[in-house]
Amino acid sequence: MISKFNSPNHELEYSKIFKDKIEQKCYMLQQVLQAVYNRNTYVNPEAIDGKTLQVLVDLTNTLTYETDSDFKENYPKYKDDIDEMFLTKDKVKEIITEALAEAHQGDQQ
User: Fold this and answer.
1) Which of 35, 63, 87, 108 fits a 20 to 30 Å CA distance from 25?
2) pLDDT tens track for 42-88
3) Residue 3 lies in a domain
4) Are 34 and 40 in contact (CB under 8 A)?
5) In a domain, 35, yes or no
6) DSSP 90-104
């Protein structure tokens, strides 16, 4: 977290980005809640016990990450340097499978 901003405008911009992120996360969580509880209207997260809500928040985070990843696979122009730092389970499996295949080829030579 930034402890001291260089200007008041930077602090305002930071706050705006943070608020936008909150809105995005709340929107995505609400989509998950409505799907899980089979509703098409607002589901009050305060009515859900803490452990269940934490699981649903984790599910929302996972779905958001996977959606972002899948979208960027289909539209590579949206990828950035950070996208190459994180590995999905499928990507890890693909890397391991390729490494094993290469190692097996080396054994046959």
Assistant:
1) 87
2) 999 999 999 999 999 999 999 998 898 889 989 989 988 776 666 66
3) no
4) yes
5) yes
6) HHHHHHHHHHHHHHH
